[in-house]
Design brief:
Layout: H1 4-109, H2 113-129, H3 134-279, H4 286-295
């Protein structure tokens, strides 16, 4: 069994060990703080670069979106142009046929609609309002019928002419629209190309910044990894300190027992000295009196 001095020496040794380990912990914390400072710096630089990357990428995506919308408009215009070209081809094909039909009707009519109309009107008025010989009336009526047929043919010629004019007008409208479509496609294509070039330029700007951000992130992770063994060392030292404290606990209890016994022995010795003073009728101090009173050697009568 260890005596009091041995316990004190052992406790002192343990305290020195704890102090050494606390110094080691302090050293590890200083290194950890350095790594944390570096890690924070790399993280700040990484986040700053990533914000720039995000901003440039957002602008690039916006340009791509505008380019795609312009492509959609160009596609619609090309589809419309294709339909109009088919229509103008159909009109061009039908023009010759309509023109031929009109010319045939005009040839068969042999005169203009207005002239034939006047002839028919004159013959009709004569037949209705004038008396003529029968032979002449028959010839007049036959001429009226013949001119009426020619008038009908001329009317068909006029209708074909109107159809021909409408076809030419539609063809002219289509050509005008095709010219506008051509200009719109050209304009949209130029705008699309500008947006495409802008997006490509922004993505080119992103690449080196993204590389830089990745580099900072790598360094940040490296610092975190470098901190782990230091943190493990701190945890290990704390565990060791805790184990030392656990070893010190029973020794402290034993030391306290020695101290209590020493105090008790000291108190007994002082009590003996106080009693001796009483027996030899020597002057006692207040402390001696209190000691004798507490021990029951002196009682106060009520």
């Amino acid at each position: 069994m260890m005596n009091e001095e041995e316990i004190k020496e052992k406790l002192d040794y343990f305290l020195q060990e704890i102090e050494k380990k606390n110094e080691e912990i302090k050293s590890f914390y200083e290194r950890l703080e350095h790594h944390k400072k570096e890690a924070r710096r790399f993280k700040t630089e990484r986040d700053k670069a990533n914000r720039i990357v995000k901003k440039l990428s957002s602008e690039a995506k916006e340009s791509i979106s505008k380019r795609n919308k312009l492509h959609e408009e160009i596609t619609k215009l090309k589809e419309e142009r294709s339909l109009l070209l088919s229509e103008i081809k159909s009109i061009s094909t039908s023009l010759d046929a309509i023109k031929k039909q009109r010319d045939n009707f005009n040839s068969n009519a042999g005169a203009s609609f207005e002239r034939l109309y006047l002839k028919c009107q004159e013959d009709f008025d004569t037949l209705i309002n004038k008396d003529t010989y029968l032979n002449k009336e028959i010839k007049l009526f036959e001429r009226f019928l013949k001119n009426k047929k020619r008038l009908d043919v001329s009317s068909k010629a006029n209708a074909k002419h109107k159809e021909l004019v409408a076809a030419y007008n539609r063809k002219s409208e289509i050509k005008e629209r095709l010219n506008k479509i051509h200009d719109e496609i050209k304009n949209f294509s130029e705008m699309s190309q500008k947006n495409h070039e802008k997006a490509m330029d922004l993505y080119k700007q992103v690449e080196p910044i993204k590389t830089k951000a990745d580099g900072y992130h790598k360094k940040f992770i490296e610092k975190i990894e470098e901190m782990k063994p230091l943190q493990d060392d701190v945890s290990r030292l704390r565990d060791e300190i805790q184990k030392i404290r656990e070893k010190m606990s029973p020794l402290n209890e034993k030391l306290n027992e020695f101290i209590v016994k020493e105090k008790e022995q000291k108190k007994k010795n002082e009590l003996i000295k106080a009693k001796e003073k009483i027996e030899h009728k020597k002057r006692i101090k207040f402390e001696d009196f209190r000691l004798l009173f507490d021990s029951g050697e002196i009682k106060i009568k009520k």
